Amino acid sequence: MYNKDDILLESGTGEVEVLVFSVGDEEYAINVVKVKEILNIDNIAKIPDTHMSVPGVSLIRGEVITVIDMNYVLEKRLNEDVKNSMTLVCEFNKMKVAFAIDEVKGISRIGWKDIKKPSTITSNSLVIGNIELNERIVMLLDFEKIVMDISPEAGINEARIEAATERDRDRSKYKMVLADDSPLIREVLSSTLIKAGFTNLKFFNDGMEAYEYLFNLKQEHGKDFNKYVDMLITDIEMPQLDGHTLTRRVKEDSVLKDLPVIIFSSLITNDLKHKGDSVGADGQMSKPEVQYLVNLIDEILEK
């Protein structure tokens, strides 16, 4: 049913493969590259005094992995039979988590441009984007937010932000362009970089908006575009244009190619880092490691 060899391997094509699954009467999706394995777990050890959505931990391939009940996350009803549930064992933000669902529906390949942004009314929900498949709306979920809502220390937190900003130097001259579809991450990046001394930050909520801005700079100023931008920092998973494709377009452009690009994403793992390398990223950083981001920026800009 699930074979990693079938996954779209080339980066920067503007396409993504999503695994579609159901919880209750609704269908949801996850980026296939996050899914390590699909299985039925046969052992769960309960953890006392934990979040309602965490039935316990399971021993999977010799690793103790936290199990999250997606029935509770999405519908606020406990799955009384988690042991017999289909489970997605996922890896992102350099950690593994098992998500108990109802049923796997299949894998579909789509373009990032075909993923519609949530409306402003639902922009702070667990939905990254909406996909139309077989005349149904399938919701692409923000699994990082699901984990962070349950366990804030697993993601970006205030201590990590403070650790990122301890170095004392003048960074006000640098002009930064940043692309991320998450309002929370844009806020975190803004807070972190401003505390570190960056004062010229231009944010975009998808890769296409960022690319159009850079392309217009090139059209208007030619090789002098670099007077108006010193670095691009981009997420990977974004509706309209993903970060890998955005990076590839910049690096394959005869004028924009020298613009430094950092990919800042939950998908920067040992297994997936090669995807950013293949499109020419100058640096890559996993989102929870925001405390190291400013150091990486300094290293690249001061080369």
For this entry, give a set of tags.
303 residues; alpha/beta; OB fold (Dihydrolipoamide Acetyltransferase, E2P); Rossmann fold; 2 domains; 5-stranded mixed beta sheet; 8 helices; 24% helix; globular; disordered N terminus
Which blocks of ≥5 consecutive residues have pLDDT under 50? 1-9
Distance between the termini: 47 Å
**Rg (CA only):** 20 Å
Helix content: 10-25%
Number of strands: 15
* CATH architectural group of the largest domain: Beta Barrel
The string of secondary-structure elements, in order, is EEEEEHEEEEEHHEHEHEHEHEH
Strand order of the largest sheet: 8-1-2-10-9
Overall mean pLDDT score?
Answer: 88
Helix-strand blueprint:
Blueprint: E1 15-23, E2 26-31, E3 35-40, E4 56-60, E5 63-69, H1 70-75, E6 86-92, E7 95-101, E8 103-111, E9 127-133, E10 136-141, H2 143-150, H3 158-164, E11 175-179, H4 183-195, E12 200-204, H5 207-221, E13 231-234, H6 243-251, E14 261-265, H7 273-278, E15 283-286, H8 293-301
Parallel strand pairs: 2-10, 5-7, 11-12, 11-13, 13-14, 14-15
Antiparallel strand pairs: 1-2, 1-8, 3-6, 4-5, 6-7, 9-10
Helix pairs in contact: 5-6
Description:
This protein is of the alpha/beta class and 303 residues long. It has eight helices and 15 strands. The protein folds into two domains: 4-153, OB fold (Dihydrolipoamide Acetyltransferase, E2P) (Beta Barrel); 156-301, Rossmann fold (3-Layer(aba) Sandwich), CATH 3.40.50. It has helices at residues 70-75, 143-150, 158-164, 183-195, 207-221, 243-251, 273-278, 293-301; strands at 15-23, 26-31, 35-40, 56-60, 63-69, 86-92, 95-101, 103-111, 127-133, 136-141, 175-179, 200-204, 231-234, 261-265, 283-286. The strands form three sheets. The chain has a five-stranded mixed beta sheet. Helix 5 runs parallel beside helix 6 (243-251). It starts with 14 loop residues before the first strand and ends with a helix.
